Amino acid sequence: MISIRIDRLMEEQLRAKDITADKIEELISNFFCINRIGVSFVIDTNKGKESFYLSEQQRKIVFLSSRGLTYKAIGEKLNIEVTTVKFHMRRIKETLNVSTLGQVIKVAIESDII
Predict the structure, then answer these.
(1) Cα(12)–Cα(45) distance, rounded to whole angstroms?
(2) Tell me: the pLDDT tens digits for 16-73?
(3) How big is the CA angle at 56 (ends 9 and 34), to the nearest 5 degrees?
(4) How many CB atoms lie within 10 A of CB 76?
(5) How far apart are CA 62 and CA 109, in angstroms?
(6) Which residues make beta-bridge pairs with 2?
(7) In the chain, what is the straight-line distance between the N-terminal and C-terminal CA atoms, in Å?
(8) Domains and CATH numbers, the chain
(9) Could you give phi then psi for residue 4, rounded to 5 degrees?
(10) Model pTM?
């Protein structure tokens, strides 16, 4: 897993050259052939918002949970065991420093995770 963090100073420099964060993500994703290795991006552009690192799989789980899917349905959709979904959700709650699914979704929306 490769994690790339773009801070505000770098973002300003890139914008001065008219390069968006989306374009950078696209270029790097194409370079690394995203189907072969996981590439995760944490782009710190949220003024006044906290940034949290969640893996691609964790982001999918949060997104599907926010759509009302059960852990069983999420497991079936992502082709993983229910216990794996529960494990990821525990780690997500720890990362976001929350204790309920509702709080996970709230923080995820406020932090532009989903």
Answers:
(1) 10
(2) 676 776 676 666 665 554 445 454 544 444 445 567 788 899 999 999 999 999 999 9
(3) 85
(4) 13
(5) 10
(6) 39
(7) 20
(8) 2-43 (no CATH), 56-110 (1.10.10.10)
(9) -120, 130
(10) 0.57
